Amino acid sequence: MIHAYVRVCCTFYCQSYGAEGNRSMGVPGEDLAGVYSAKDFVGWYNGLPSCRELSPDLSCETAVVLGQGNVALDVARILLCPLDILKSTDITQLALEALAESKVRRVLIVGRRGPVQVACTIKELREMVNLPDTRPEMVAADFEGVQEAVNDLPRPRKRLTELMLKTAMEVPGEKEQERRKKASRVWGFRFFRSPVEVLSDPDHKRTAGIRLAINMLEGSGESARAVLTGEVEDVTCGLVISSIGYKSLPIDASVPFDSHRAIVPNIMGRVQQATGLYCSGWLKTGPTGVIATTMNNSFDTARSVVEDMDSRRLDVSAGKPGSQSISALLDERGVKPVLFSDWEKIDALETRRGEAIGKPREKLLTVEEMLLEARK
Ligand code: NAP
Questions:
Q1: Residues 6+ apart with CB under 8 A from 123
Q2: Does the beta carbon of 256 sit less than 6 angstroms from any atom of ligand 1?
Q3: In degrees rounded to 5, what are phi and psi of residue 80?
Q4: What is the pLDDT of residues 281-292, one digit of tens each?
């Protein structure tokens, strides 16, 4: 349908709707109360209308975050961050109130591979290490052989691994020792562990722990693979947040989609077998990279469009109705689009509401409220 519409109405069309889904663990117990996807948890504290009702149960002491990417570290930090710091961010008031009552004091960030393979960046790790009122709790055995390997690592990975080694293995200076002694909250990486089953309480109602398979590594460096040893370990926890990556979803049967890689198959943003269709963002590359990576990737797609216009791969000579026909169709169907100027009204209201309570913004949490403001 989309593709047919592109042919009639516009010369080209670029899809950039991101990665709305998440990879699932595929283990028993995943549906128990107390298990959340990072996508939903992040959506909840960031004020995504669809996650407003999540109301995560934060009544346990230990939380396990599965995955060791930047999202996992974001989640761990939110769970442990002192309220005074959170209060001056744009976190929703709803999340702030729930976190004020939270009993979570220990967060374990679990990865299937080793310290040399963590997916987070040094910036995020540094923020975790420096988070006030927390101290690290690592397992020395996980770092066996890492010191010896560190000098051969590529530079960004080397600096990240050095920070991890320092945090896990070095005896800190007096000031840092004092800070750690006073800390009321604990975080730590757990390596070489894959989720096997979320364990339930005796009533089979909610999460009581997680069974982890113990892995060893096959190969070395970033491409090393986790291989099961056959041993397992149970960790007691009341909250499990699965942060093993996001996933794009197909939007329309007429647009090619690679279900295995969860991307729109493309070459430099040109959707394969669909002239006139382009893609950018996580839909194009999969859910990797920081904002700058995604931005540069989108510039590449724009470059492909310009090249195709110049080389006449795209026929720009034929006049097409473009947005006019789309507006007419929306009108006919009674759909009122939200324009940039409408969004600016929502932005202004959120900013005003935030200012009143010392925050950069206080977000509107329902689409109804947003539309009400937009249409004023
Ligand atoms: P990610 O960086 O891809 O990390 C995913 C983590 O999940 C990895 O540790 C991965 O381990 C693990 N994992 C994947 N499949 C697994 C499985 N089946 N079982 C166990 N573990 C599994 O994803 P992300 O943290 O969701 O972040 C997505 C992107 O957004 C990243 O590029 C990230 O940098 C970016 N981001 C950036 C920021 C920031 O800059 N502040 C904040 C949020 C997100 P393996 O390595 O073994 O696969």
A1: none
A2: no
A3: -110, -10
A4: 999 999 998 889
